Amino acid sequence: MAIKIKTRDQIKKMRAAGRIVKQVHDLCRDMATPGTTTKEIDDAAQQLIDEKGAIGLFRHYPTYKPGEGFPGCLCISVNDVVVHGIANGYALKDGDIVGIDCGVQLDGWCGDAATTILVGNVAPKTRQLCEDTEHVLQIAIENIKPGRKWSQVARLMQNYAEAKGYGVVRDFVGHGIGDTMHQDPKVPNFVNRDLIRHDIHLREGMTLAVEPMCNLGTKDVRTLSDKWTVVTLDGQPSAHYEHTLAVTADGCEILTDGN
Ligand code: MG
Ligand code: MG
Domain of 181: which CATH number? Predict the structure, then answer.
């Protein structure tokens, strides 16, 4: 595992990419009202990314050859869709939750972040799931420090989510990020034997996309026949929040908060 340490200048460029990701999230939040289709949101996001002179990192992932790979600009994951939802003609309804995941590259450097948007009156348990999953990401932000092992942080995240009774998704994890979207190391939101064996020793200049996914019911998921859309096995809702973070001398900074 080769973890690339980034310079201050490189991190600054990642923050510039992250700023566009945040602008896309804000646009999606404004648009996500009953009656709007996920395709309309996806198209508007693509237009904004183009206007900013950035490159969306999801369309045609992973080969980036035209006609291949992921068909959308964003991953738009509604209700029981965990991640990798594809925009389509579905019109949002009152009570939906909409995961928006966006990655862009600007001047050669990447930002990647996800949020879950609540449309109108969301059922209390589902609303709580979203708040708690966002808090799981906050736990990571508050506990990342040079000298700590990632398993210490992941354990806090997992314990918080599981104490609330949520299923912590095992099949998808966070990742290193830099001049490409997916780099070493894998950054799980839980602790398993593999992580203990290959733990990440947090160091200043590491840049990580941390992205907890919590389900109201079972942690188990399945992929639909489109080969992308991942849904909960029991059909219950799922929430997803992500930030690109840089480990600093005494903690971490968020590169996708729009600052
Ligand atoms: Mg993402
Ligand atoms: Mg990511």
Answer: 3.90.230.10
Whether residue 242 is contained in a domain is answered as yes
* Mean pLDDT computed over 85-101: 98
- The domain containing residue 238 runs over which residues? 8-254
Across the range 210-216, mean pLDDT stands at: 98
Q: Please report, rounded to a whole number, the percentage of residues in the chain having pLDDT higher than 70.
A: 100
Helix ranges (DSSP H) in the chain: 8-31, 38-51, 124-143, 150-163, 193-197
Q: How far is the CA of 7 from the centre of ligand 2 (A)?
A: 21
* pTM of the complete model: 0.98
The tokens of 244 are what?
């690109």
Answer whether residue 187 shows pLDDT above 90: yes
- Least Cα distance to 178 among 51, 61, 50, 57 occurs for 57
Can you give the pLDDT at residue 2?
87
Check if the beta carbon of residue 111 is closer than 8 Å to that of residue 18: yes
Ligand 2 midpoint to CA 103 (Å): 8
42 CA distance to ligand 2 centroid (A)?
18
Nearest ligand to the C-alpha atom of residue 99: 1
